[in-house]
Amino acid sequence: MSKKPGLTVLAGPTAVGKGTVSTYIRDNYPEVWLSVSATTRPPRPGEIDGVHYYFKSKDEFESLVAAGDFLEWAVVHGQNTYGTLKSTVDAAIAEGRSVLLEIDLQGARQVKQALPEAQFVFLAPPSWEELVRRLVGRGTESAEEQQRRLETGKVELAAEPEFDHTVINDDVRRAADELVSLMGLTPHPH
Ligand code: 5GP
After folding, report:
1. 10 lines ligand 1 (CB under 6 A)
2. Is 170 part of any domain?
3. I need a labelling partner for 117 at 20 to 30 A (CA). Which of 54, 93, 137, 143 fits?
4. Across the chain, which distance is largest between two alpha carbons, in Å?
5. 178 lines ligand 1 (CB under 6 A)
6. Whether residue 41 has its Cβ less than 6 Å from ligand 1
């Protein structure tokens, strides 16, 4: 892994655990510059503006879209809008930082159009059965909603060949270490 890409994009199916892997990296790998996205989603308890997301109103987000300020943006789960701001990412790349974007598949495809030289990593579940377990979760959803999630999961898994590398999320720490290696950095001893 001698290549040290400036920009790495991590994407994968819903419920595969992208957020857990990126939180692990935020907490354990300060040498990775983890992009902070803008979103119209309201903050969850404990989330800090500028750390976890830049929380924006719909109007603010639309103005940023109109100004061409996003490297990519997408409506995720048909609900809230999320996007990566060009200015922050460009500055981090220019400083020679190892930049990581944790975004959804639609966003990853847009980055591939804009920056094909970036590295694209697919986070995959250990098996389809495990993804089903994570998608269906605690079984609080209706049978119809579960079916919808499974269909989405199948379509999302089929995107794997679009990516340069696949990392299997069998264990968060192991997956994070593998990702960091792909970024050309040295995983820490634990
Ligand atoms: P959450 O609301 O749980 O924090 O994130 C929901 C989803 O939004 C995750 O799948 C995450 O990958 C995606 N997401 C977060 N930030 C961005 C972004 O800047 N762009 C895109 N396209 N997706 C994002």
Report:
1. no
2. yes
3. 54
4. 49
5. no
6. yes
